[in-house]
Fold this protein.
Amino acid sequence: MRKLLIIVWLWLALASCEGLEETYDDYAGDGKIRYIGMCKSISVEPGWERLIVSWENSIDPVIENIEVAWIVNGVRKDSLLSKDATTCDIRGLEDGNYEVLVSSVDKNGNKSIAINDYGRPYTLSHEIAQTVSRVVIKNFFIKNRLVLFFDKWSANIESAEMKYTLSDGSQGTLLLTRELVDQKYYLLPVEIDPTKPVTVHRKGYIANSEDLILFDPYELGHGYNLTSDFKFLLKSKYGQYEITSDFVENQNELEIDYSINSIEDLLYFPNLTKLYLGRNRYMLSKYVIYPTGTDGYYCGSDSKILGVEDISARYAKSLFILNTMHELNGLTVERYNQHFLMFLYTNNLSFVENKGNPEVPEREFLSNTEFTYQCSVEDAANYDSHLENLFDQDVETAWMPEQLPSPRRYVITVDFETARKINGVQFVQRIVDPRTDRNSLKFFPGTVLIQGSNNGVTWFDVAYAENQTLGKTIGETTEVSFRENLENIRYLKFTLDDSPLGSNYSISLAELGIF
């Protein structure tokens, strides 16, 4: 009985399959639909102006060809390959995100369902290509000589060279090798024609691509690519908000008083013949005997150094710049109070004159009876910071707010009652004995914001820059001259911030003289 049931069941199943096939044929039109075997496992890898496509083929025997198509921005192109092809190198591509499709094709042109992937070729527009080292990152034309500053040598660079025109009209080439680039900077030893293009040519690789690329050559510019520190120096000292060729070419003297990241931008000045270092650092003679900053309690090393890289590289770079400027421009240097430690690591340079302590300019200060003043931070009922000490013209007294666990911002406003001509101000740091009161050195302010007003509401810069640097040695005087074209003003506003000492904050200052 059981065997009979199984036979009946099989007969019904076969009848159902036949009926389904007949129905399928009815809807298939002219005959049965025959699907062509699809490819699989597509991969699209970027190359230089190309995409490398790979895939696995189907074993379907009706396949005659493989079609590879690529689409970008609505434009479609394709290529028909042999049935055994498993890779395709699509060349001559521009920048863009491409959709790549791979299909099997039979002898009648029927295609399988396509498999797809996406890829973007490497081109000069690709951000990765734009990050490849330019080798030369900064250059300076000084008369008919050329100074180069290099990037770190990149493993992606196969070779590089620089082409230029010599002063006699012949062509010159400098091979930019790893050994040369590792020097970081270089003075081309020959005279060139600076009116002719100087170009850098590079060959190399990007990312994981095996393609050797001939990058477009680029031309060294004659513009000014100044560091932010040097820009601030020229703005605050000389009022140069925009660096012009007239200023650069006509400047034969410059002053640097405080540490900056690099003095390389001195090389932009083709006629610079005099450099003053620390000429405006008016220190107490008692503490000038500690010139190197080795005893930071007397004079902080932060204002003694040119550059912030590691010591050996910093000094070597600064000395290269000064020696180059001396060789090409006849530069001489006046160095005051033995500022800038780099000179301690070399023999005496013939063009550097070591000067003593500069004298503080004699000024006729306004008496504190000629104005009123107030501070935005009020003293506690049981404490007196002696704000009046700022204006008493006595360096032995000082303004000393209470030490508190939270930092404060102080806005000291001076009112002259009527608008009047103000030429500048002098700040004097507090005088302390570092052997018994080292902690007070932490509260010396390093910067101050100075503004003026005629109505007490609208404020403007009185100097070329808002924030002014203050020398932080004991009893040091810093003078800030106001803009020459500054009109009469009624109000001055000085903004200073607390400094930390452990968990407490405070500030101190001996004098604020107005002249």
